[in-house]
UniProtKB/TrEMBL annotation:
Parts forming coiled coils: 184-211
Domain of life, source organism: Bacteria
Protein name: Uma2 family endonuclease
Sample GO molecular function, one term: endonuclease activity
Length: 219
């Protein structure tokens, strides 16, 4: 019997399949917020965060693919991709998040969990924003050897973050400072507050100058 070699040069690797990005708006919002928060957190590092893009893991076999909701890859060039091919980039995703539901439970808990372990994804997090099948909403696994074991302390060792449930979103907290990574709305509010404080300080300084002149300087 003659083995059939894949036609590597002719293989096509699509970037979309026309399927919906997420099951509901709640899942979509959780996915996009997770994507943006982690992008901001990893800015300036040799890392990228991708969302709902095809992850190809077998060269020459474009049907062997999966589209994680959010995946974090280290030691690669920052920025987006149309899709991600492990053999071209040289790195497997280190952390993957799936926004799961009752409709995707079997695939997320069985097929994807097995596949990600085989690909040696270090951490796999399942987030059920509606609590349809995960009562605690968030469930994490860490790779030990060839199998995943439950993460019991809500700590992502690979990201150096503590994860927490905040209604229908995942909250991320730095392990070194305890500081929360702000979501875009919170970041906008914090920037607005900082801008207001700066304007108030400038107004106070202007009133001082009107009454007393310029501030004294060290001679």
């Amino acid at each position: 019997m003659t083995a059939i070699s894949p036609q590597l040069s002719a293989a096509s690797y699509p970037s979309t399949d026309g399927e919906p990005v997420a099951e509901t708006f709640v899942h979509l919002y959780a996915m996009l917020i997770t994507l943006e928060v982690l992008r901001q957190y990893l800015a300036g590092q040799q890392a990228t965060v991708l969302s709902n893009q095809f992850l190809y893991y077998a060269q020459g076999f474009p049907k062997l693919r999966v589209a994680p909701d959010v995946m974090v890859i280290f030691e690669v060039e920052p920025g987006g991709r149309d899709n991600y091919k492990i053999w071209e980039e040289g790195q497997t995703p280190a952390v993957i998040f799936e926004m799961t539901s009752a409709g995707t439970q079997e695939q997320d808990q069985s097929y994807k969990k097995t596949l990600y372990a085989q690909l040696e994804v270090e951490e796999y997090w399942l987030f059920d924003p509606k609590g349809e099948w995960i009562p605690e909403k968030l469930r994490g696994y860490r790779l030990q050897g060839e199998e995943y074991v439950p993460i019991t302390d809500s700590i992502s060792q690979r990201l150096n973050l503590r994860l927490a449930i905040e209604e229908s979103l995942i909250g991320f907290y730095r392990l070194d400072t305890g500081e929360k990574l702000l979501i875009p709305d919170e970041l906008s509010a914090a920037l607005a507050q900082e801008r207001q404080r700066r304007e108030e300080l400038e107004a106070e300084l202007a009133r001082y100058r009107q009454q007393f002149g310029d501030l004294p300087t060290d001679s």
